[in-house]
Amino acid sequence: MFHIAIVESMHEKAIDIIKKKKNYSYEIIENTHEENLINKLKECDAIALRTAHLTEKIIDQCNNLKIVSRHGVGYDNVDLHALNNRNIPLTITINANAVTVAEHVISMMFCFNKKIHLFDQSVRENEWDKLKIVNKKIITLNSELFKKTILILGFGRIGKELAKRCLAFEMQVLVFDPYVTEKVMQDYSVKKIDLIDEGISSSDYLSIHMPLNDDTKNLININNLKKMKKNAFIINTSRGGIINEIDLNQALNNSMISGAGLDVFDEEPPEHDNPLIKNEKIILTPHSAALTKECWLRMGQETIINIIDFFEKNLDSKCVANKNAIKYYE
Which CATH number fits domain 98-284: 3.30.70.1060, 3.40.50.280, 3.40.50.720, 3.40.50.1980? Predict the structure, then answer.
């Protein structure tokens, strides 16, 4: 009997997968404080993990732990070094959220471009011409995606799905990703650039799809923000910390760029006095880019299936973040 600890609840249909299996039991743990997790996870064989932090202290006390399955693709909330020390694989849901996050980016781009929320407000306030006519002259606040240029940082599954949607609007798509070959990018009809600064000055949009690590921490800072077009927008649905928040606020306040869309922050949730919260040039969402009905189901199911596939020796190695660990079991 394999016991699965589900840290923070997930879609009920994902849990139904476990219920239908004879050799598996489960427990849902909502209290994610470190001491509680140490107590609750001691004897589990597998952990299905959403956003809680799985620290080295917790992992060291998991006597029977054989696999950790992340409900998502990022894993900066997991001490990967501690897992590697014990050859414990960490799986991610590689097929679940790419479309949803790509659509979220597009929706932010439309918020910048079409300003539907502002027009809606003007109609409700009986200000029909407020955003259309000033001093008896027509004004145009909106713009098109057509023929605009987007720079995508990171060309994994989400970056690829975003590129496909941007190309449908006949945008020019530039991509920075040193780990993806030019041949792959040509297959997706996008242009590979070797340096971020090479594309940042000519782009109307910048969308980030990279993991947070030592190389990407503060990757976007005042040095490259000031090279962007003054009418450009930056969107981050990846991880907080890749954009230097102080520099972003400065760039917006000094009209170096026109706006930003943030789904992620250095600290989540951000403190109420974080100046980005009050900056009206920013569209904010609460790390919810992947939270659609469809994606929530897919992520839950894939999280559980990765665990079961591991124990039944059917696990796709592409789902494993630390591939050296999975070799230990092959």
Answer: 3.40.50.720
